[in-house]
Amino acid sequence: MGSTEFPYGIQNQPGGSGTIEGMGQSSWTSYDYATYAANLRCLLLEKLAPDGRCQRCGRKPRTITRLQIDHVHGRTWDITKVNRWTRAKRYWQEFNDGVALRALCKKCNAGYRPKRMQPDEATVREAA
């Protein structure tokens, strides 16, 4: 992966190169990582939806944190296999690489999820 441009010139995880105000890696707790990831997510949501509205239905939630980041053409990675910090980094990498992202409310984002295909009973019996 190439260089990723994060807001405020941060280019790596907290404690690595590009740390904030010289904080060493040992200074960061899991709470710091989670808070920092949440802040990165909010900054990206502000870029995706400057008016704070869902890009599908136009509703405006009470806070921008209630919006969700949607991949227009689907994700290529499993969101459940990465932590918050890695997710925030990936969202920013994809945003900088030009991947089509948008901010949707929870209801609209749930409506866009592809349904899981149920295995055909005949196929399951043949495999057994």
Note down, in words, how this protein is organized.
- With 128 residues, the chain is mainly α.
- The chain has a domain at 26-113.
- Helices cover 36% and strands 6% of the residues.
- The protein has helices at 30-48, 84-97, 106-111, 121-127; strands at residues 68-71, 101-104.
- It has a two-stranded antiparallel ribbon.
- Helix 1 (30-48) runs parallel beside helix 2 (84-97).
- The protein is globular.
- The model is unreliable at 8-21 (pLDDT under 50).
Q: What's the pLDDT, averaged over the residues? A: 77
General shape: globular
* Main β-sheet, spatial strand arrangement: 1-2
Question: How many helices in DSSP terms?
Answer: 4
H/E element order: HEHEHH
Question: C-alpha Rg, in Å?
Answer: 18 Å
- Assess the beta-strand content as a share of residues: 5-15%
Given the helix and strand composition, which structural class is it? mainly alpha
Helix content: 25-40%
Largest sheet: 2 strands, antiparallel
Which residues sit in consecutive blocks of at least 5 with pLDDT less than 50? Answer: 8-21
Number of E-type strands: 2
**CA distance, first residue to last residue:** 42 Å
List its traits:
128 residues; mainly alpha; 2 strands; 6% strand
Helix-strand blueprint:
Elements: H1 30-48, E1 68-71, H2 84-97, E2 101-104, H3 106-111, H4 121-127
Antiparallel strand pairs: 1-2
Task: Provide a concise account of the structure shown.
By secondary structure, the chain is mainly α. It has helices at 30-48, 84-97, 106-111, 121-127; strands spanning 68-71, 101-104.
